[in-house]
Amino acid sequence: MLAEPGPEPEGRGSPRELAQLRARSKALGAAQGIGSSLPVLGVDTVVDVGGKDYGKPHDRSAANAMLKALAGKRHQVHTAHCLVDPRTGAMVEELVTADVACGVPTAKELTLYLDSGDWRGKAGAYGIQDGSQSFITMHAGAYDTVVGLHVEAVRRLLRALLGAT
């Protein structure tokens, strides 16, 4: 079962620590009282620029400011995964990181991306998978880490929690 998004918990720490805190909070919150024997997965993705967490923009103006701040820079994307067994309370976690480059979009490219609305609900105001942008590129790491769900990490967590092979 995939945990439903909710309010992000308050906390302090590095972007890596915040991603882990939020993924854990989502998983534990969803696991409480669901009456299921299925594992619950919480995931959180953050954009880390020099130790600063670029979260989800609250409006177009904030998205514009984030994308302009990212322009021409490389940064890291951390995706934290937390898998909880609601029957036992057992929990396993994994954080994966990828390096991403942001080109310098033209004014027209930036306007078209902002007009698309694809930035909504996305850390750093972008989705690498969005067809409406061409200025975000992978540098190193797994593409699905940047999308926000690293499949191999989830497989490892399932094996660790359930003993699956």
Characterization of this structure:
With 165 residues, the chain is α+β, with helices and mostly antiparallel strands. It has one domain (15-162): Maf protein (Alpha-Beta Complex). It has helices spanning 15-31, 60-70, 107-116, 143-147, 151-162; strands at residues 40-49, 52-54, 74-84, 91-102, 136-140. The longest helix has 17 residues, at 15-31. The model is unreliable at 1-6 (pLDDT under 50).
Describe how the helices and strands are arranged:
Layout: H1 15-31, E1 40-49, E2 52-54, H2 60-70, E3 74-84, E4 91-102, H3 107-116, E5 136-140, H4 143-147, H5 151-162
Antiparallel strand pairs: 1-2, 1-3, 3-4, 4-5
Summarize the structure.
With 165 residues, the protein is α+β, with helices and mostly antiparallel strands. The protein has helices spanning 15-31, 60-70, 107-116, 143-147, 151-162, and strands spanning 40-49, 52-54, 74-84, 91-102, 136-140.
Descriptive tags:
5 helices, 165 residues, alpha+beta, 33% helix, Maf protein
